[in-house]
Amino acid sequence: MFGIGLAAPWIAYTVVTGVSPLDILRVTFGSHSELVQRAYLPWLLLHPYDVLLFTGLPASILAIWGAVRAIRLWRWDSLTVFALAMAVTIVAVDVAGIVQGENARILSFYMPFLLLMGAVVLRERASRYDLPLFGAQALVVLAMAAVLYVVPLDLDPMPDGPRQDIGGLGDVAWTDADEALWSTVRTVDPGAFTLEQYRWVGDPSRQALTYEFEFHGHTPAERPYQFGAGGDGTNR
In what side-by-side order are the strands of the sheet with 175-182? Predict the structure, then answer.
């Protein structure tokens, strides 16, 4: 009955719209693959490595040990069945390749369940075995905090005020452009915007030009884009 109730809305949706859940999954996975553009085979190993690393190697080793122990015991109690089901889920998601990149963040909800997998081993031992695990996890956290910069620290500091080493635009008049621009890269949403107007000032002593542009966006871009300007060396 549960399966019928779960499938009924999707059956009705498919009949009315002509779009099945498999069609939705196919488009979703295709769009995701075009977005991340990462090779499947290398990330087949990097995916679980990323998750296990940020879970903590001691806890991850304990989880793997728990899964192996559950297979050997082959006991149909709740904890053993859970450990086996969780192990199958992790492998299935990894092989499916539906999460490509930032797995430790996206799959962070795995982490409590990985700890429960390790309980297959810990339940057979005295409670004092928890202390070495906590200590090892703490050491791993300290080591990762010392060498892994999850948030880059090489960003430029926020400026205190306008730059003084380039010419100021002041009251320089704007020049109308009304030039439509869009990306030539074929993606799901290449994006488009219009260059409404611009102004510039030259600094002959520094051989530099300072530009200011005003844009109007039309459609959001799936990927960051950049554009450049070039001169032809003539006075006009």
Answer: 175-182, 192-203, 208-219
